[in-house]
Automatic annotation (TrEMBL):
<dbReference type="InterPro" id="IPR029035">
    <property type="entry name" value="DHS-like_NAD/FAD-binding_dom"/>
</dbReference>
<dbReference type="InterPro" id="IPR026590">
    <property type="entry name" value="Ssirtuin_cat_dom"/>
</dbReference>
<dbReference type="InterPro" id="IPR003000">
    <property type="entry name" value="Sirtuin"/>
</dbReference>
<dbReference type="Pfam" id="PF02146">
    <property type="entry name" value="SIR2"/>
</dbReference>
<dbReference type="GO" id="GO:0070403">
    <property type="term" value="F:NAD+ binding"/>
</dbReference>
<keyword id="KW-0963">Cytoplasm</keyword>
<feature type="binding site">
    <location>
        <begin position="108"/>
        <end position="111"/>
    </location>
    <ligand>
        <name>NAD(+)</name>
    </ligand>
</feature>
<dbReference type="GO" id="GO:0005737">
    <property type="term" value="C:cytoplasm"/>
</dbReference>
<dbReference type="InterPro" id="IPR026591">
    <property type="entry name" value="Sirtuin_cat_small_dom_sf"/>
</dbReference>
<feature type="binding site">
    <location>
        <begin position="225"/>
        <end position="227"/>
    </location>
    <ligand>
        <name>NAD(+)</name>
    </ligand>
</feature>
<feature type="binding site">
    <location>
        <position position="188"/>
    </location>
    <ligand>
        <name>Zn(2+)</name>
    </ligand>
</feature>
<keyword id="KW-0520">NAD</keyword>
<dbReference type="GO" id="GO:0008270">
    <property type="term" value="F:zinc ion binding"/>
</dbReference>
<dbReference type="InterPro" id="IPR026587">
    <property type="entry name" value="Sirtuin_class_II"/>
</dbReference>
<feature type="active site" description="Proton acceptor">
    <location>
        <position position="126"/>
    </location>
</feature>
<feature type="binding site">
    <location>
        <position position="134"/>
    </location>
    <ligand>
        <name>Zn(2+)</name>
    </ligand>
</feature>
<feature type="binding site">
    <location>
        <position position="137"/>
    </location>
    <ligand>
        <name>Zn(2+)</name>
    </ligand>
</feature>
Length: 291
């Protein structure tokens, strides 16, 4: 643990406010930001009770049956996922950017809720489910448009019930999947894939490099709602630590980055982030806003 680091047992919201005040802050966000919007996470405090086996990239590309399984489940889960609204955490990040107190936001989420809350300086590490891409010609289609095509191809198809899972997925019985018809690309008839990075797939190098530039230019890296289990996000915490950039982590439960953190808060984002906005933008408490 870095010298003078504060664990969740000793750190307070006031400590976090003092660390961020008058500094260039870049945020790294994860699924914990969106759980209050009704989107389940993979590794939250209760996720160990639920078996989560996300589809692998190679399985999707090579196996037509796996693609049918994916799109049937996505078809069932999309209406709830796409109707999710930004919560106080998203709105707090939007307010921080508008106030000039957040230099950039790197998100591992694919729900675009940060955008809907007003953030414009966003790097989507894993893409967004709002778009679908053809693996053959590269043509992009909106997920809403694809949902309409899926509905036309599968009239009357509806699972009796299902469990909502992370990233717009849904748990279905096998019988409901067998009859599901999957559309092809409108431009070339090729294979369609959500425009996101699957497990087993690499984040595009230009995206990673852009995120590294933001981290390198920051005075503080604020990690919010991520266990950092996946290297995709953890690499930025490691990069900040290597360069002596303080890392502040706010998350319910332990994270892979805890040993590298300067400050660690085991707390609800929906309480911490709004308090942070109030303190940094109000002018109270000794002029905490950045000059």
């Amino acid at each position: 643990m870095p010298p003078e680091a504060m664990t969740s047992a000793t750190a307070t919201v006031d400590d976090l406010i003092r660390l961020l005040a008058n500094r260039r802050v870049v945020a790294l966000t994860g699924a914990g930001c969106s759980t209050d919007s009704g989107i389940p996470d993979y590794r939250g405090p209760t996720s160990a009770q639920r078996v989560r086996a996300p589809i692998q990239y190679q399985d999707f590309v090579r196996n037509a049956a796996m693609r049918s399984r994916y799109w049937a489940r996505s078809f069932a889960g999309w209406p709830r996922f796409s109707s999710a609204a930004p919560n106080p955490t998203h709105h707090a990040f939007g307010a921080l950017e508008r106030a000039g107190l957040l230099d950039g936001l790197i998100t591992q989420n694919v729900d675009r809720l940060h955008h809907r809350a007003g953030n414009q300086k966003v790097i989507e590490l894993h893409g967004a489910l709002a778009e679908v891409r053809c693996l053959d010609c590269g043509c992009l289609e909106s997920r809403d448009a694809l949902q309409a095509r899926l509905l036309d191809l599968n009239p009357g198809w509806s699972p009796a019930s299902f469990e909502e899972r992370p990233d717009g997925d849904a748990e279905l019985v096998a019988a409901a999947i067998e009859s599901f018809v999957v559309p092809t690309c409108v431009a070339c008839g090729g294979v369609l894939k959500p425009h996101v990075v699957f497990f087993g797939e690499n984040v595009p190098r230009p995206t990673v490099d852009a995120a590294f530039r933001w981290v390198d230019a920051a005075d503080v890296l604020l990690v919010a709602g991520s266990s950092l289990t996946v290297f995709s996000g953890f690499r930025f915490v490691r990069r900040a630590a290597e360069r002596g950039i303080p890392v502040a982590i706010v998350n319910l439960g332990p994270t892979r980055g805890d040993p590298l953190a300067h400050l660690r808060l085991d707390a609800r984002l929906g309480e911490v982030l709004p308090a942070l906005v109030t303190a940094l933008t109000s002018g109270d408490g000794g002029g905490l806003g950045r000059a």
